[in-house]
Structures are given as C-alpha cells and as structure tokens.
C-alpha cells in the first residue's frame, strides 16, 4: 500500500506543478485549480481498494495531461489582440472549417 501512497502523492504534486505553469500569472485560475485538486483528492482520502485507487490515479493523470497539453493562456495586448502562450507541450490541432455563408 505504501507504493500506491507514493504514486498518489507524486500525482498530487505533479498536478500542482502543472497548474502553476498553465495558469501562471492568473491568480483566480491558480486559486480555483488549487481548490479543485485539494477537494478531489480529499474526497477519496479514505479509499483503500487498490483497483479504485488505480482508477482514480488514471483519471488524475489524464486531467494533468489535459491541462498541460490543451489549456492555453491568452494575454490581451495593448493593440486589442490576444497573444497565446503556446508551450512545447501544447497539442496543436487543425480547426474544423466552417461552411461559408452564401449571399442571399
């Protein structure tokens, strides 16, 4: 059980490190994400079933990857545009094309 405990603590720390990078400079998002991580881990602190713990760890690892790879911060510039903070982990994907509007 101590092996699982160390995995849980490691995952908890990783989520907090990731949120600090992803939401850097955004105090509201930093506080909200800290609260959410703490709440979710506290909700399951008395779980003893190893398979359930493994399932919860997989969910937490998936959430960490989503934050790291899919959440992009935008910073408004003084010219009214938004500069995106793309990192080496950001998964860039093509946007779906929207059909053009036909003139009526």
Automatic annotation (TrEMBL):
Name the UniProt record assigns to this protein: Complex III assembly factor LYRM7
Cited function: Assembly factor required for Rieske Fe-S protein UQCRFS1 incorporation into the cytochrome b-c1 (CIII) complex. Functions as a chaperone, binding to this subunit within the mitochondrial matrix and stabilizing it prior to its translocation and insertion into the late CIII dimeric intermediate within the mitochondrial inner membrane.
Record bears the keyword Mitochondrion: yes
Lineage, highest ranks first: Eukaryota, Metazoa, Cnidaria, Anthozoa, Hexacorallia
Primary site of residence: mitochondrion
Keywords: Chaperone, Mitochondrion
Subcellular location: Mitochondrion matrix
Stated family: Belongs to the complex I LYR family.
Subunit structure: Interacts with UQCRFS1.
Ranges where the Complex 1 LYR protein domain occurs: 7-62
Alphabetical list of InterPro entries matching this protein: Complex1_LYR_dom, Complex1_LYR_LYRM7, MZM1/LYRM7
The organism of origin for this protein: Porites lobata
């Amino acid at each position: 059980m101590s092996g699982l405990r160390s995995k849980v603590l490691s995952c908890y720390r990783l989520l907090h490190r990731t949120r600090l990078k992803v939401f850097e400079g955004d105090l509201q998002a930093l506080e909200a994400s800290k609260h959410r991580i703490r709440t979710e881990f506290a909700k399951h602190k008395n779980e003893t079933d190893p398979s359930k713990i493994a399932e919860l760890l997989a969910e937490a690892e998936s959430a960490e990857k989503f934050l790291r790879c899919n959440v992009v911060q935008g910073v408004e510039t003084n010219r009214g545009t938004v500069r995106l903070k793309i990192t080496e982990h950001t998964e860039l994907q093509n946007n779906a094309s929207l059909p053009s509007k036909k003139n009526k």
